[in-house]
Design goal:
Bound molecules: flavin-adenine dinucleotide
Distance between the termini: 27 Å
Helix content: 40-55%
Largest sheet: 3 strands, antiparallel
Number of helices: 7
Number of strands: 7
Order of helices and strands: HEHEEHHEHEHEEH
Number of domains: 2
């Protein structure tokens, strides 16, 4: 049985309960508080520290490579694909607005995709045109053959660079999100 003290503190009623303190749970809590500051939110995490994909990923801060975007557009059409890319792009910007680069080791190092056939290149201009209103760039995906040698990717045929992507420290981001939620 819980004590009166526990019932009035840790177990007090909340408007919204979120299960899981990974990126999804923490960002959801933050979004709810931004939209509805008066709502009370509780996040329940089953582990002492969040133990899920959020602290075990590669730390790529990406919103989709050229071939991913092409594949998505073929599977679900351009409208849905652009909606998804926009959400991911804005998500990345939100991370950068909420936290300083040095707090989460964010580096705008670019995202790269190796291609070993030229077919996707035929879609390059059309995809760039579609993404222009999202990224604000004339060319989100750029063919950058010079970097094949620079990166030591000798046998690769083509290298596509996306200057809007980069990397971050997922552990530090999760820690900062936890602090923000507290
Ligand atoms: C190997 C790998 C590499 C990846 N690389 C990248 C990458 O480079 N870039 C990228 O953007 N994405 C990457 N991802 C994807 C990204 O990590 C996930 O999309 C993201 O972390 C999912 O967050 P989440 O909060 O939904 O899930 P999780 O981080 O898994 O969080 C779920 C949380 O819920 C808790 N939980 C579960 N059940 C309960 C319960 N019943 N009660 C209480 N708590 C519970 C868990 O303990 C956990 O802490 C990668 C994923 C993996 C697995």
């Amino acid at each position: 049985m819980n004590s009166i003290w526990e019932l009035e503190t840790f177990y007090r009623k909340r408007d919204i309960v979120i299960i899981g303190a990974g990126f999804s749970g923490l960002w959801t809590a933050i979004s709810i508080k931004e939209k509805y500051p008066q709502k009370t939110v509780l996040i329940i995490e089953r582990n002492t520290i969040p133990l899920g994909a959020s602290t075990r990923n590669a730390g790529f801060a990406c919103f989709g490579s050229l071939t991913e975007v092409i594949a998505d557009s073929q599977k679900m059409g351009w409208e849905k694909t652009l909606e998804l890319v926009k959400m991911r792009f804005e998500g990345l910007q939100k991370i950068r607005t909420c936290f300083k680069s040095n707090e989460i080791d964010f580096e705008l190092s670019g995202g790269y995709e190796i291609l070993n056939n030229s077919e996707p290149l035929q879609h390059l201009d059309a995809v760039n045109e579609k993404l222009r209103t999202i990224t604000g760039l004339e060319r989100t995906y750029v063919l950058n053959q010079k970097k094949i040698t620079e990166f030591g990717l000798g046998k690769s045929e083509f290298l596509i660079e996306n200057p809007c992507e980069g990397s971050l420290h997922s552990g530090k981001l999760l820690q900062k999100l936890l602090e923000k939620c507290h």
